[in-house]
Amino acid sequence: MKTDVLTLDNEKAGSVDLSNDVFGVEPRPDILARVVNWQLAKRRAGTHTTKSTGEVVGSTAKIGRQKGGGRARHGSRKTNIFRGGAVAHGPVQRSHAFKLPKRVRALGLKSALSAKRADGKLVVLENAELKEPKTRHLVARLSAMGIANALVVDGAAVNENFARAASNIPDIDVLPSIGANVYDIVRRDKLVLTRDAIAALEERLK
């Protein structure tokens, strides 16, 4: 399918033929949800923890005599019923990550790309390069193109001047093609791809 290619000056620079196998699949909301959940679970630190009875510092001697004290027959003060004691069945350090088949992850990325194209929120740029890292210049160019909330994906490497200028703009993310992922695509309103990004994504997902 043919799509117009624009420059950063919002001028037409030809067209590009998008692969139907990557940008023309039927979007699967269920697959998108699975991949997003997988990404978010993998990034969780899982460092929340509480102390068990064996980790609490304290005496293990019996508090009082077994009989005749008029109180409950308690043992160690480290149990969870005492102030400063352990926590019963508390959280422990663990990884929240789970496995997801490569085919599902690839289908999720294809669905995200196809959904943006189908919704008319895919913009193709000739390149994402700036001569100097001036944020105001980039803001003016993006505003002229109607881009205020977007993910910009470049080729193997991101132009340094473009990345520095975009880093000061809220709701604009810049990634190399290898970093393109479902979560960052769906969380932004528009998806901006360069010619190099399209070639890299089609090669990655073929």
How would you characterize the overall build of this protein?
The protein has helices at residues 20-23, 29-43, 102-118, 135-144, 160-166, 182-187, 195-205, and strands at residues 2-6, 12-17, 122-125, 150-153, 172-175, 190-194. It has 206 residues and is of the alpha/beta class. The chain has two domains: 2-45 and 98-205, Ribosomal Protein L4, Chain: A (3-Layer(aba) Sandwich), CATH 3.40.1370.10; 50-90, no CATH class. It has a four-stranded parallel β-sheet with strand order 3-6-4-5. The chain has a two-stranded antiparallel sheet with strand order 1-2. Helix 2 (29-43) packs across helix 3. The mean pLDDT is 94.
Please specify the SSE layout and strand pairing.
Elements: E1 2-6, E2 12-17, H1 20-23, H2 29-43, H3 102-118, E3 122-125, H4 135-144, E4 150-153, H5 160-166, E5 172-175, H6 182-187, E6 190-194, H7 195-205
> Strand content of the residues, in percent?
5-15%
| Beta strand count | 6
**Quaternary organisation:** single chain
Rg to the nearest angstrom? 27 Å
CATH superfamily of the largest domain: Ribosomal protein L4/L1
Q: Biggest sheet: strands, sense, closure?
A: 4 strands, parallel
Helix content: 25-40%
Give the class-level CATH name of the largest domain: Alpha Beta
**How far is it from the N-terminal to the C-terminal residue, by CA?**
16 Å
Strand order within the widest sheet? 3-6-4-5
